[in-house]
Every structure is written in C-alpha cells, then in structure tokens.
Amino acid sequence: MDDTTETPLDTPSPPVENRSPAPPPFEYSGPGRRRMRLMRNEQWLIYCLPFILFMLVGVFEPHGPTKGVFAEEGYITYNLYPFVYTLKIILTSLAIVWVWPGYRQFPWKVNRLGVVVGIVGAVLWISINKGQQFISADLLKDWGLGSLTKLGARSGFNPLHELRDNPGWAWQFLAIRFFGLVIIVPIIEEFFLRGFLMRYFIEYDWWKVPFATMTPLAILVGIGVPMLMHPQELIAAFVWFSMVTWLMFHTRNIWDCVVAHGVTNLLMGLWVVYSGDWWLM
C-alpha cells in the first residue's frame, strides 16, 4: 500500500528502547471535526501556529523611541507598544484555543521538580543577566555577529511610568503583560521547541518520534536555538535551557517544562516590578 494513503497518526512508531511512548491519536466527535481532521493531518499546526503568530505580530513591536520595524518612520511609536502587544496576546490566545485539543495529547500532570527548576532558573537567569548584561552583545560584535543582538531586543516598557497619566490602563496592561509572560509564552515556546523542533531534527516524520527522545543534535537544537533567540543573554539562556532540557528528559512530561518556564517568568516579572530592571522585559 502507498504510504501516502496513511495519516501520520495511523502509522505506529517502531519500538525504541528508553523512549517514552508517542502521544496517542487524539479523537473528537463533537463540533469542529473538520478542524480536528486538519490537525491530525497537519500536526505541525498544533505546535507551530501559536508560536508563528506570536513572532509575526512581535515584529511590529517598537523596542524604544526609535527602535522597531516602523518606529523611525513614525508609524508605530513607543507609546503604541501596549496596543501591539495586547493584539499579539489576543491572537496567540485564540490560536492556542484553536489547537488546544492537540495539546491534550499530553496528559496534564505536574511534577514538583518543574516548580523547583523554575525557581532555581529564575534566580540564575536574573543573577547571570545582571552580571553579563552587555558582555554577550560585545562578544558577538567582536566575532562579527553583532547583527544577532537585534533578535533579542527587549521592549523595556515600564507601563507604570510610560502610562502614568492613565493609571487604570497602566495596571491593566501590566496584568496583560504578566498573562503573556507567565501563561502564553511558556506554552507556545515549549510546545514549539520541545514538541516540534527537537523532534523534527531527529526524524523527518517527527510526529512518530516519542516526546523526550534525546540525540546530540536534538539537545543542540533545544539549547542552541533559544540562545540565538536571546543573543544578549547568551550565558543565562545556555544555563536555563540546559536545565529545562534535562527536566524534559528526566520527567518526560512537556507540562513540567511549561510549568518551569512559567514559574521562572513569574518570578522574573515580579523582580522587574520590584527592582525596576525593566530591561529584563
């Protein structure tokens, strides 16, 4: 029989030692069966769609008075950051809701180790970044890779200052910012990085690869890609994503990675509000 007649989830993975089982096929018989059929046949949508939307809208965020795609032309200025960010979170949240049945392939369970890794990770992320805030950017410039620093530009937007004339909106946006930081970002980044990208670099038919399967290339991707996404925080990114990659292998549960990510981001956000280190956000 031609292999192209089989849907991805209809083809069982060959047994491999020391691998956690692949997520079982997700079934659904209620409203939205067409959507479920699409996700069965195009599983990359589950892991990539929310992340892609988040990144695409994020391109238009201004990162300062003259930093952003259209900031210099005066189209999207710094004062519009809260509206662009809010739109990004709304669209990404809708995408998460749309693909949520696919997320349910992974049973919800949380190991306390995920919380511990998140706490330790927050302390290390803040401490390392305060010690090397400019070091990694300078090193990249010395190596001729200074353009990479633009990829990790932070908005540094302090709503309590920038929106001080409208305190109600300032606190509302701060709540939106925390929702994105603590809930949305951990979900979309962990599902994209560990649910899709690491498995894609193991096997072309990545959906057949059980979650938490480790190869040297997958480990390199799981640590190296986030480092490229945080070029001004290279050392902290290396340490933090190494820890969470170990957590993934140890518990073989994607939700532990999401929880660790969320705990770190929550503590970091609280530190930023307390200390005024808005350059971390």
Question: Radius of gyration over alpha carbons?
Answer: 20 Å
Major β-sheet annotation = none
Q: What is the CA-CA span between the terminal residues? A: 53 Å
Helical residues, percent: 55-70%
Regions with little confidence, pLDDT below 50 for 5+ residues: 1-19
Structural class: mainly alpha
The percentage of residues in β strands lies in under 5%
List the domain count as a whole number.
1
Mean pLDDT: 84
Q: What is the global morphology?
A: globular
Order of helices and strands: HHHHHHHHHH
Task: Please count the helical segments.
Answer: 10
Q: How many β-strand runs?
A: 0
Short description:
With 281 residues, the protein is mainly alpha-helical.
Give a verbal description of the structure.
- The model is unreliable at 1-19 (pLDDT under 50).
- The protein has one domain.
- It has helices spanning 33-41, 44-58, 81-103, 112-131, 135-142, 159-162, 167-200, 216-229, 234-251, 254-275.
- It contains ten helices and no strands.
- Helices cover 59% and strands 0% of the residues.
- The radius of gyration is 20 Å and the shape is globular.
- The N and C termini lie far apart (53 Å).
- With 281 residues, it is mainly alpha-helical.
Can you give keywords for this protein?
59% helix, disordered N terminus, 10 helices, mainly alpha
Write the layout of secondary structure elements.
Blueprint: H1 33-41, H2 44-58, H3 81-103, H4 112-131, H5 135-142, H6 159-162, H7 167-200, H8 216-229, H9 234-251, H10 254-275
